[in-house]
Amino acid sequence: MRRWLSRLSDSALVLFVLLGLAALPFYKADALRERFVGAHAIAPGSTTAVLLVSLAIAVFSLLRRNHVWTNPAQLTWDDHHDRDRLLRRRLWTAVVARFAAVAYVFVSAGLILGWPDNLPLAGALIAASALFGYRWSNRPQSWVELGGPFLLALAGVLFAGPVVLWAVVAVLVVAAVPSGRPVRRDVLVRGWNARILRSVSAAFGDALALLPPARPIRVRPTNPLRFAVAGALARRSALPFAGLVLLAIPVLRHAFPVVGSIWWVGLGAYLSTVPFAGGLAEVVRTAGLRRWVPTSTRVLKLAAFAVLTVAAALWGATVVLLGFPFVPLAVPLVAWAVVRTVSRPDIDYTAGVSTDVGGLYLPVGLVFQVLRGPDLLLFGLLVLGYFHSS
Amino acid sequence: MSDVIVSAEGIGVLVGDERWLFRDLDLAVARGRCLALTGENGSGKSTLLRCLYGVQDPTEGTVEVAGRTPDETDAAFRRDVSVLFDDSAVFDEFTPGQHFDLLGGGQPAHDLPEVPARGLSAGQRRRLLLLGALTKPHKVLLLDEPERAVDAAGRDWLKQMVNAAKGAGSAVVLASHFPPLVDAVADEVIDL
């Protein structure tokens, strides 16, 4: 026992803490209900709505195709067996992991918010979503596939009734009929490069490396403002993610009404807007790209701020249509928090001084820089939340 | 000698505790002149260029470029000095024309296809980087092995471009492993 305990590292401690938190719904459901729902009445269908949003996120995540990769060295020297079998095995693992998470969310929501009347329908939704996600993530990427997660999220936002939800199940099953197609070598190599980037980013705690890559655009970047516009438009691949967040927050607000609207709007706008600031992040972090833009960093930040303000305002105006209040001050707050996040200096990994973060000792510089941006957002939302509620 | 725009006196760079990459080096490059740095791999050519751009401090000696101590973090210094280094990069999503829009120095004549840079070959990307360094308004031009990944025709074009930059009054310092380029453009050569 002592030998087993001596093998426990700091990270095991973090794991224990996380497992303890994850288990809370199973023995503290009443306390959690009190904390997140309070005296509000639980909207009927809340658990099903939470399930639908979870399914939308799980399918969306599968469609990122993180399982599609092969080491180029393997393609060069050891490419004589069936590639697809390995990919299918990885895809199964991805499906199981994501839908296990969905099952956990569903059970937790059931314990806290109450179980839905129609459990077979919930099962059918899970099965149809898994089938849709499995089949489409086994095919070349297409905009059409986004219909699946958006249909699920939309059904969640509308708190759709059983008839509509059975129709959603039918649509997902029918849409899953087309079979998969083999993946080409260039896609596998691209997947490998993305995987390496993800591992490096995770190892070094540098989430900014995961901002979406840019796609070609026609805008001529003749001045800093146009450069910022080009940077945002080039990352239009982040639009579906922003749309999904947009549809998720009304469900979460209904399910957990104690959390103020300003928090959902602020956090949602921040998450949705960050990817569009990838252009500024890239040019601030890469000296070789910085030399193409002979403008001061301050001007680049201001230009990005202007563009992100417009993006956050559009996002904020859209959530108004979903029943949220419009808080004008939240718009520049989110835009500036995003600029602050993406323009942080390179992460300082020197471990001169370390600090205890949930049982893990991390360099102070790393903690300080990772929090740069979210700190402004949280502080601003705290202030806005105070005035908004009083 | 008032035309001298790049100068160094007694500079040296120590690697580790006791190995000098180069030491007691003096150099002076006037407007419209070109200094070529040659030498085998690891002899310190790129390090010297980094010292001239203020990315690295020499262990000893003084350097002056465009009237000031090199400091790459200073926007005014960057406006005077154009570089092509190992870390130079292109925006994958921008076409060559969009890259030149960024520099604000007009559109140079070129035969690169107007497609996003991700669609260019390695040689074409290199040529785009060279065009960028040459097009950006500058007083001093620092080029680290500009001939790399460029085909025979491109190397001839490179000679013309560097000579054109000299003709326009630029002081050029380039590191090269390609003797025909050095012969065609250099007024002085330092073999490290």
UniProtKB/TrEMBL annotation, chain A:
Coiled-coil regions listed in the entry: none
The keyword Transmembrane helix appears for this protein: yes
Domain of life, source organism: Bacteria
Transmembrane segments: 41-63, 91-113, 149-176, 238-256, 262-281, 302-327, 366-387
Keywords: Membrane, Transmembrane, Transmembrane helix
Protein name: ABC-2 type transport system permease protein
Origin species: Actinokineospora terrae
Automatic annotation (TrEMBL), chain B:
One GO term (biological process): response to antibiotic
Domain of life (superkingdom): Bacteria
Protein name in the entry: ABC transporter
Subcellular location: Cell membrane
Organism: Actinokineospora terrae
Main location: membrane
UniProt GO cellular component terms: plasma membrane
Domain ABC transporter: 6-192
Membrane topology, record value: Peripheral membrane protein
Family under the similarity heading: Belongs to the ABC transporter superfamily.
GO molecular function, one term: ATP binding
Native organism taxonomy: Bacteria, Bacillati, Actinomycetota, Actinomycetes, Pseudonocardiales
Record bears the keyword Transmembrane: no
PROSITE patterns recorded: ABC_TRANSPORTER_1, ABC_TRANSPORTER_2
InterPro entries registered for this protein in UniProt: AAA+_ATPase, ABC_transporter-like_ATP-bd, ABC_transporter-like_CS, ABC_transporter_ATP-binding, P-loop_NTPase
Record carries keyword Ribonucleoprotein: no
Annotated SUPFAM superfamilies: P-loop containing nucleoside triphosphate hydrolases
